[in-house]
Write a sequence for this structure.
């Protein structure tokens, strides 16, 4: 005996990721960009950790405790600069170009103000080595820029989003 197909329409299979009766969330249009920024942040944190270790070792060899302090201050400034850059980009994912420009310019001004204030506070202090601080800060800034470039270059961000 053959059975005829059930004339009633099939019930949709519930999506186990959503609670009963909740509509499915719309896809996050900024997810590819956020993925790139997470990669940049992770790589930058690894760079800063390595830079702290190498900077402290080189600093202690070059000028003792003053070199250690110079390395630590340099890593702290580099971390602030890198963190503010990544934060400003993450904050403006999906925003208009004008809003992105305003946040980026504001964060740049904030970084310059912090740098000037820190250098003013450190002026005349002798507990740190200036050259170690400059070297560590330069390596951190240049290294972070290269890692950001690599994250963007390797990131899979669609040109057009539906």
């Amino acid at each position: 005996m053959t059975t005829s197909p059930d004339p009633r329409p099939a019930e949709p299979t519930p999506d186990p990721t959503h609670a009963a009766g909740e509509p499915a969330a719309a896809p996050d249009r900024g997810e590819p960009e956020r993925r790139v920024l997470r990669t940049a942040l992770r790589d930058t944190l690894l760079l800063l950790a390595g830079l702290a270790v190498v900077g402290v070792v080189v600093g202690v060899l070059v000028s003792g405790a003053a070199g250690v302090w110079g390395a630590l201050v340099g890593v702290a400034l580099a971390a602030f600069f890198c963190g503010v850059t990544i934060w400003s980009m993450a904050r403006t994912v999906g925003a208009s170009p004008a809003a992105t420009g305003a946040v980026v310019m504001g964060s740049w001004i904030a970084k310059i103000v912090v740098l000037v204030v820190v250098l003013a506070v450190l002026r005349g202090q002798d507990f740190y080595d200036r050259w170690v601080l400059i070297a560590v800060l330069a390596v951190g800034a240049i290294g972070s820029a290269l890692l950001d470039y690599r994250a963007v270059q390797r990131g899979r961000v669609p040109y057009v989003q539906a």
